[in-house]
Amino acid sequence: SLAVLQALEDGLKKADADPSVKAVMICGENGKFSAGADIRGFSSPKRHGGALGPIVSLIESSEKPVVAAIEGVALGGGLEVALGCHYRIAHVKARMGLPEVTLGLLPGAEGTQRLPRLIGVPAALDMITTGKHIPATEALKLGLVDEIVEENTIEAATRLANKV
Fold first, then answer.
1. Which is nearest to 97 in space by CA: 52, 142, 66?
2. What does each C-alpha distance from 82 to 33, 86, 101 come to in angstroms?
């Protein structure tokens, strides 16, 4: 939603400007990182701001480490947000993917560029063109996530953020 995008942008800018903040963690709510955009919003008129691509670029360009704590699902734009983060920790039961292709859409926040850089072209093409969801264990093998945990993902991401 526009509110989530604005909160992400505001939070990142505030963290970057605050010298007491040493790292940033992005997590979801209620056991889910992000299922991506609500496609019903695609037909609404464009408003000023609200584009995911520039926000993901803002995450990626942060001078402070940004860690994604992935629980549940990171799909579509949610995965693209995680791809912009410097580090990704996922719960062992998490799933990731870019399912918008099954609706005839391509990922629109540069996921088609970031994913191949991270996991290689063959694996990225498979995910991008099929829309399949992969489990955290496969994401770890591919290099999509840095660590998987069975415990509290937010606590693990906080430990990593403090370490880096």
1. 142
2. 9, 8, 18
CA distances from 37 to 12, 61, 100 (A): 20, 22, 10
Annotated catalytic residue: which of 80, 110, 138, 150? Answer: 80
| The model's pTM | 0.92
Half-sphere exposure of 88 (CA within 13 A, CB side): 30
Categorize the per-residue pLDDT at 48 as very low, low, confident or very high, splitting at 50, 70 and 90.
very low
Question: How big is the chain, counted in residues?
Answer: 164
How far apart, in whole angstroms, are the C-alpha atoms of residue 5 and residue 10?
Answer: 9
Q: Which of 100, 110, 150, 155 is labelled catalytic? A: 100
Ranges of each domain in the chain: 2-162
Residue 42 above 70 pLDDT?
no
Is-catalytic flag, 80?
Answer: yes
Domain with residues 2-162, CATH architecture: Alpha-Beta Complex (3.90)
Mean pLDDT of 156-164: 93
Based on the residue annotation, tell me whether 9 is a catalytic residue of this protein.
no
